[in-house]
Give the backbone structure.
Amino acid sequence: MSVWPEPVKLSGKFASVVPLLQAHHDDLVEAVKDGELYRLWYTNIPAPGEVGAEIERRLALHKSGSMLPFAVIEQASGRAVGMTTYMNIDAANRRLEIGSTWYRKSVQKSPLNTECKLLLLQHAFEELTCIAVEFRTHVINLQSRQAIERLGAKPDGILRAHMRMENGTVRDTAVYSIIASEWPSVKANLNWLMEKPR
């Protein structure tokens, strides 16, 4: 039986999204050091010494059918600058979440994230025929919430006391989604964001 969705490589002008491999380890260790994002208590970004274990964790979830992990490759350098996934996969209902995403600080607020989301959403709606794609983040992660809203995702609500964080706190999770009927407008907006002068 095949796993849905199957691994895929998606390429754009600024970034490629490719199946995650241990071969991306060294680039990703350098990426997590940029800005020390692993120090943010409300995210789950691996520390430099934990990158290998995080790659293995994501690959194990892929084998179980609950995640399709990717490395994000910056086209200009050819190096991995972050990770993202299709996760919480519900093949029967053609739903998934784009999540567990992080990028090195030097590429944040660049066209790279917008293009990655465009590539992943286009594949989800146009090739995988998803009926909905979700995004989730810690309710206090305003930077992430603003980025999700900028994509055109609409708020579904807050899952209160949703999960325990590694530091012992309890996370309220902000949930957003894009549904299939909204995709043409969202796609037009993402293409406009990619083309507008910077």
Summary: The two ends are 46 Å apart (CA to CA). The longest helix spans residues 111-127.
